[in-house]
Amino acid sequence: MYSKKIQFKNRQGLLLEGSIDFPIDQKPLSFALFAHFFTGNKNFTAVRNISRALTRNRIAVMRFDFTGLGNSEGDFADSNFSTNIDDLIAAARYLEHYYESPKIIIGHSLGGAAGVFAANQIASIEAIVTIGAPAHPSHVEHLFEEHIEDIVVEGQAIIDISGRQFTIKKQFLDDLGNKDLQQLLSTMRKAILVLHSPQDTIVEIQNAKEIYNAAHHPKSFISLNGANHLLTNKEDSFYVGEIVASWAKRYVSFRKQKELETDKQTVVRIGRSKYRTEVAARSHSIIADEPKKYGGQDAGFTPYELLLSSLGSCTAITLRMYADRKKWDLDEVLVHLEHFKQHAEDSHDCSDDRTAKIDKFVRTIELHGNLTFAERKRLLEIANRCPVHRTLENKIEIDTVLR
Description:
By secondary structure, this protein is α/β, with parallel strands linked by helices. The chain has 2 domains: about 250 residues, Rossmann fold (3-Layer(aba) Sandwich); about 90 residues, GMP Synthetase, Chain A, domain 3, CATH 3.30.300. Strands 1-2-4-3-5-6-9-10 form an 8-stranded mixed beta sheet, sandwiched between helices. A 3-stranded antiparallel beta sheet has the order 11-12-13, with no helix packed on it. Strands 7-8 form a two-stranded antiparallel ribbon. α1 crosses α8 and α2 crosses α3.
């Protein structure tokens, strides 16, 4: 993904820092806004992994540090749940002004609750995603419950969360107590996806049930079985990103991609990004690219891998067709391919490198099924007759014209 650092001012005029993660071609189908967990930041590993998964699915993600956290200005002690909501609204306005309004809002833990409240005030939001979110914002008080009496009496207290010290003021507690998430959900009509782990020991699974029951359809629930609250296992966070991307396609009005059109069999397009290339034929499309060591983004097959894919797929289809016609018991075909250049046997001493080497394709075929030796031998012969094989062996002429 391609990331761009950004800064924007919140309601109090404080400068907040964030990043916008784009798909490789920087042409997203939609924008999502991410709200991190209580005392977290935009660069937490799970946040970045979820963002990576979304950008792979052409959804751009704006992630930023709430007031007083990470690289954002302000004093965390003066912030509260309401300022988090305001920060999200300010972030949405930034996207609207410089790019386009976000249609998805994703929140982790307390950020999930903040995301619901913010979505109620951001007209463009069509879909809400909560990850391990509490059904009651005040649930976060359990992180410093032994200090609540000091906060009420003294007006504030310094607490330790994951080895870091934070000042919590009484106004923070009062603000949490004034936010009724379930009441808000009962009046909202926006699609919502609730993701929660049954093994979450920080925010228990019961919270997901309460959120789901309070919300109106369309609503969905996905169990993150085996995951912990912070999604520290990267497989869990990538899974969340893929699930969100897939779910959003049903509930979000994505920008329609400009289709590659041609009056020929296939069309290929590349823009300024190195070296992401779109390939389209009929109603299907794939991505070609180069490995990172060659300056690409490794977003798809290399041109030679596509060439090998053509030979391999044609071989497999040809064998399937032949076996079906003969009614042979062929369960599965695997075709392993490689390509390299080697010296032709009769040109070791040739000084012209163009004739000194030839292109070599090695195709190894696995045939699974109840087949006789004679049937396997015949299928190997048929493999050499597949149309792409014959094309590659023929003398080829390529005419190139400007359009």
